[in-house]
Amino acid sequence: MNIVPSQLTLSGGDRLLSQLRTGAMDVAQGFMRYELWSSLAQDDLRQRYRRTVFGLAWLTLSYLVFILAKIFIFGALNPAPMAWFAAYVTVGFLVWQLLNSFIIDGCTSLINSETWVKGVQLPYSTYFYESISRDLIIFAYSAAVAAVVLVLTGHLPGWAALSVPPALLLIILNGFFLHMLLGIICLRYRDIVQIVQTAMRVLFFLTPLVWTADQVGSLAGFLVWNPFTYLIDIVRAPLIDYRIPYTSWAVCLGMTAGLGGVSFLVFSVFRNRLAFWY
Fold this sequence. Notes:
The structure is a single chain. This protein is mainly α. It has one domain. The chain is built from 10 helices and no strands. Helix 4 runs antiparallel to helix 6 (125-152). The longest helix has 28 residues, at 125-152. It is globular and about 65 Å long. It starts with 11 loop residues before the first helix and ends in an 8-residue tail after the last helix.
């Protein structure tokens, strides 16, 4: 966790290369501890629902109730067929829930790991993997509901659905980058956590989840500036419209490359200072 003394004598470029190598080693070594971070994620969820009747099934039940409420309330206001709108809302909110979890949990991933950081010497990326693993478990419970809704509404998988697994992998990769970037920023500046949480509440209403672009008229032009629109589209369009949104894919790949470069650079440069920010 401390700066290696030999790095102090390196030139700026050599020092940066050394930091990048150390950051890459942290990411790789953290991933190799998959038994640890996966067990921690599962144990955390079990503790949340300990002594409840349904246990982890509450993850599925809460998602189901929320989706049904959104479908019936906003479905009455949308001119689209109810079956299509139900699938539209279900898949859209499923992806939004995952992205929202990545961002909110990413902000607190290092803050909530203070005891571990101070007591055990582990790669910092271990705490990112743990948080992402926990979010993916919750996603899996919700995805079971989404699969049932798709079948009941007649949206059986077509050839375009083959692009969904790569799309989810891309979203998970973005989630890791978000943890890496937001975890460090929020550890240093704690007020950013509150700002991000507030911003996500607002963005929920500015993202096409319970409304469609044709309902907002000229305001639909602002959707091009919302990155969540593209990330949701690469999963939702193949499942409910049976098409691969190539434009959204191009935008998402560009965002991933940019976010990944910035996140890894920030993580590598400031990694040695993290322990002093608690």
